[in-house]
Structure formats: structure tokens, C-alpha cells
Write a sequence for this structure.
């Protein structure tokens, strides 16, 4: 009745994920936490082996490795290869230092999201917030149009015009 | 902050287990977490001992200066013995990762345990607010204010494109993780849980057991959380949980409970009354068995099949029958597995008012 871990067939499967292999086949995996960790899935204990996998898929293995081999952050000394092995970045600057390789990973991990929308530190104030409101309204507009909710879409268009004229 | 004070904490029941709040018969708790890092400092994987110590100091000072957090208990996790670190994990005040890490690290938490700040976990600061029942808006309101107050004291690493920067790029952007803990015994009994899991996957949500790892993932308690933190605002993420994800699962569980009552009442009662029977009579009880039995009794209570037990006792037992709690409550005596099972069974019988001859 309960789903049992497909690997050890003992523990209850608590980890459910759809894996995409290099041939782009989708495969569903149901694992217990322990086996998920050894397979490199567990989000809590090894947050980034999944990212490493995706990076391999996206960048197509070899080319990215040679490129990655040379990338080192000049502020904290972390190399891109080390990041891939351990899954954690070394300093805020890494986001720019590794940008080229990191960006597709981030995009995949966040289902296409590449730019922050939402809370902004007070010290950065209003401009950011307005820009984000605008981005949010544009997204909602696309959703409304897709859902053929034209009344809502019209309201959102007005709001966007208002934001753009500010 | 001494172990003695923590021992007293162990006797309390955490607010998130009070069994109150909207949809509390299915939604155990609503938790929101924010990941933040101090600007201009390395993330922890590249910080040496001195820098780590410095960050801990700076963050702890900010917590003390923030008006909402000034009354928090501050605990030096690195100085704590293993038993008390596990106690904090069982109370969900720190993560397993934080308990097992090394180097300078702390936690500060409100006396009622509804909010906590982990210092030097994966990120410099991990703020969490947790409420019993389905109360995400309240939780967001509180954590947003805490974040604002901490921001008055500290400059957080923020990128014009990526937003709040985190050690792991899977948390970048809002740094926001919503986790709702659900009790879904009927979906499990009717084998409908797979559908929930399937739907959650489609929506890019993670489903995990009660306390994370391995054997603890029994007893029909599940945590659902978002994985996407970039490109969606805090309110969009929370709106999804509040208006779509959780109400649908709750309706589904309610329907499954009703279907059991209508069509398989005997089988349902059998589960419930076997569970209460085991709790009242067993001489040895593992934490997994206790969790499973408590789960079925809880379902009995909320479906009206069983009235002879109160929810508070049940929730207390959920917390107190866990290994570290059990050990702390038995005066910290070091126990082996069998002794723990024996003590656990005895504690349960006592709390359920079974008179022993
Ligand atoms: Zn397994
Ligand atoms: Zn760096």
C-alpha cells in the first residue's frame, strides 16, 4: 500500500522525483531518504548533486568541463569544478564569476526563472520595486490571456501602462 | 543558556503542535523560511574559522538589537551536547544539518518557539516562522517584519538580477521556502496518495516525511514545500499554497475520510481501535510504531469515530515520544533501543491514563 523504496525495497519511499537522462527520457524514481542521498537526490543533505546532473545535461558534458576547468572566482578562490562537486558557492561574487555556466543551471532549477521578482532590501528602495511590479503584471497578463480572461487582461494592461508611465 | 533550561523547554509543547488554526484536522503546521547572507562576506563553505566566528557574532548582535527578536533565547549550538542538539531538531528549531555541522553556529528562538533564526547553517541566516494550522499569511507577515528588522542591522547580499544571494543556487531569489505539514492518513489508506505525489511533482513541489530522513517518514505526516525561489515573488508562491495546492489536498483527504466512513467503516475502525489498543497496552514501542498509532488515533478523533482521548495529549505524545525527548524527559539517562521502547510504552500508557496493576 505504501510506496516502498525502489532501490533497497525496505524503507518507505519518501523521495519522488522525475529524472531526465541524457537521451531526454523521463524516468520516475521513488526512493527512501537514505537511498535518495546515495543517489545524490536528497535536497536537504546534498542540495546540488541534482544541479550538477542538470548542468551535465544542459551543457553537454565535455565542452562545459573544459570551460569549467579554468573558471575560478578571484574573490574566494572557489573553482567552478569545486562548486559542481560540492554544490555550494563560496561567495556572492560567484554568481557573476560563474555566470555563463551558472545561469542555465539556475534557469532549469527554477523552471525558467532567471530574474528575481519580489522583496527588495529597503536600502535599494522604490525603483526596483516598481520594476518588479511591472514584471509581475506582465506575467499575470500572459497568464490571463492564456486563460482567455480578457476582463482581467484589460485591467492588467491598464496597470502596466500606469507603471510604465511612472 | 544551560542544558537545564533546555530540559525545561523539552516539557513544553511547541505552538506548532497545538492543533489549532484553520483546517487543523489536516494541516498540522505552516512554516516559512527565509535564507539570507551578510553582504561582503564569504558563504560558509569558503569561510575560515575566524570569519565564521565573526559572522556568528555579527548575526547574533543583529538578533539582539532587532526589537521583535530581543527576547529570544540564544543558544550556542556548537557548545551543546549531541542529545540537546537532537532535541532542538525534534522541536524543529534547528535542521539536522545544523545539528550535525561543525564550527561556530547558533540558534535564537522565541520562547513560544513560533520563530527562530539559525545562524551559520547553510546560509549565514535562516529565519523561520511556524504556526499551527493553515496560517501562511500570518507566518509571512511575521517573517517579513523580522527580515525588515534584521535588515536594519545588517546588509544582506543582494544581486540586481538574482535577488537575495544564497550559498546554494536552488534557494536564490526570494530565499523563501514554504513548508506545510499535512496529516493524510485516509489518502494513504485508500492508496490515493500517489496522485497527490504526482500532482506535486507536476507543480515542482517537494514532498517529504515528518522529520526528513529515512525511518522517521512514517505515520502519514507529510511536508509539502516549494522548490522554485527565483522568478516568482513571495506573494505568488504563498498565494499558490493558500489558494490552490493546500485546499485541494485537504479536500482530497476529507473526501477520502468520508469515503472510508461511508464504505469501509469497519476497516477504518479496526485501524483506529487497534492503534488505541496498542498505545494503551504495549510494553515495548518503537518511535515509528508510536507515530503510526498516534496517526490513526488522530484520524479517529477527527472523523468522530473516537472520543475518549484529547488532542492535546495526542500532540504532546507526538513530540515527547521521539528519542531525544524521551531521553531528556527521563533525566538524560543514556538509553539503549530496548530501554527507550520500554520507557516510551510506559510514558504513553501513563499519559493515556491507563492504571497499572
Ligand atoms: Zn532505500
Ligand atoms: Zn567567490
Amino acid at each position: 500500500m505504501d510506496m516502498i523504496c525502489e532501490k533497497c525495497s525496505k524503507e518507505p519511499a519518501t523521495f519522488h522525483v522525475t529524472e531526465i537522462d541524457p537521451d531526454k527520457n523521463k524516468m520516475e524514481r521513488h526512493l527512501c531518504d537514505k537511498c535518495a542521498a546515495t543517489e545524490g537526490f536528497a535536497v536537504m543533505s546534498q542540495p546540488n548533486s541534482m544541479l550538477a546532473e542538470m548542468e551535465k545535461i544542459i551543457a553537454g558534458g565535455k565542452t562545459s568541463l573544459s570551460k569549467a576547468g579554468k573558471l575560478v572566482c578571484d574573490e574566494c578562490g572557489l573553482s567552478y569544478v569545486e562548486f559542481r562537486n560540492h554544490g555550494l558557492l563560496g561567495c556572492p561574487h560567484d554568481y557573476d564569476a560563474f555566470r555563463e555556466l551558472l545561469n542555465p543551471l539556475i534557469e532549469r532549477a527554477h523552471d525558467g526563472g532567471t530574474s528575481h521578482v519580489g522583496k527588495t532590501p529597503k536600502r535599494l528602495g522604490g525603483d526596483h520595486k516598481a520594476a518588479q511590479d511591472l514584471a509581475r503584471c506582465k506575467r499575470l497578463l500572459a497568464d490571463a490571456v492564456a486563460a482567455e480572461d480578457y476582463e482581467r487582461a484589460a485591467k492588467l494592461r491598464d496597470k502596466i501602462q500606469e507603471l510604465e508611465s511612472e | 543558556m544551560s542544558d537545564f533550561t533546555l530540559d525545561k523547554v523539552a516539557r513544553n509543547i511547541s505552538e506548532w503542535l497545538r492543533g489549532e488554526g484553520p483546517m487543523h484536522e489536516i494541516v498540522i503546521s505552516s512554516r516559512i523560511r527565509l535564507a539570507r547572507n551578510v553582504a561582503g562576506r564569504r558563504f560558509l563553505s569558503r569561510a575560515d574559522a575566524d570569519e565564521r566566528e565573526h559572522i556568528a557574532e555579527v548575526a547574533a548582535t543583529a538578533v539582539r538589537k532587532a526589537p521583535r527578536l530581543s527576547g529570544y533565547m540564544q543558544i550556542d549550538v556548537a557548545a551543546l551536547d549531541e542529545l540537546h542538539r537532537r532535541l532542538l531538531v525534534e522541536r524543529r528549531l534547528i535542521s539536522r544539518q545544523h545539528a550535525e555541522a561543525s564550527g561556530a553556529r547558533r540558534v535564537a528562538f522565541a520562547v513560544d518557539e513560533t520563530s527562530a533564526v539559525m545562524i551559520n547553517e547553510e546560509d549565514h541566516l535562516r529565519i523561520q516562522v511556524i504556526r499551527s494550522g493553515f496560517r501562511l499569511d500570518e507566518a509571512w507577515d511575521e517573517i517579513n517584519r523580522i527580515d525588515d528588522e534584521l535588515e536594519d542591522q545588517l546588509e544582506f547580499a543582494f544581486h540586481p538580477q538574482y535577488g537575495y544571494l544564497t550559498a546554494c543556487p536552488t534557494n536564490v531569489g526570494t530565499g523563501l521556502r514554504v513548508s506545510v505539514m499535512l496529516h493524510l492518513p485516509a489518502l494513504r489508506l485508500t492508496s490515493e496518495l500517489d496522485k497527490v505525489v504526482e500532482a506535486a511533482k507536476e507543480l515542482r513541489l517537494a514532498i517529504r516525511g515528518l522529520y526528513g530522513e529515512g525511518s522517521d517518514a512514517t505515520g502519514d505526516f507529510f511536508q509539502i514545500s516549494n522548490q522554485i525561489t527565483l522568478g516568482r515573488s513571495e506573494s505568488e508562491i504563498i498565494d499558490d499554497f493558500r489558494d490552490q495546492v493546500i485546499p485541494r489536498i485537504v479536500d482530497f483527504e476529507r473526501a477520502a475520510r468520508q469515503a472510508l466512513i461511508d464504505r469501509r467503516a469497519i476497516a477504518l475502525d479496526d485501524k483506529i481501535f487497534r492503534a488505541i489498543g496498542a498505545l494503551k497496552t504495549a510494553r515495548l514501542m518503537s518511535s515509528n510504531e508510536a507515530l503510526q498509532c498516534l496517526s490513526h488515533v488522530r484520524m479517529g478523533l477527527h472523523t468522530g469515530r473516537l472520543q475518549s482521548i484529547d488532542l492535546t495529549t495526542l500532540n504532546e505524545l507526538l513530540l515527547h515520544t521521539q528519542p531525544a525527548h524521551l531521553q531528556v524527559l527521563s533525566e538524560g539517562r543514556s538509553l539503549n533501543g530496548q530501554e527507550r521502547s520500554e520507557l516510551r510504552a510506559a510514558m504513553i500508557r501513563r499519559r493515556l491514563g491507563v492504571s497499572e496493576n
The pocket of zinc ion (ligand 2) is lined by residues A 73, 75-76, 78, 90-91, 93-94, 97 (CB under 6 Å). The CA atoms of residues 78 and 90 of chain A lie 6 Å apart.
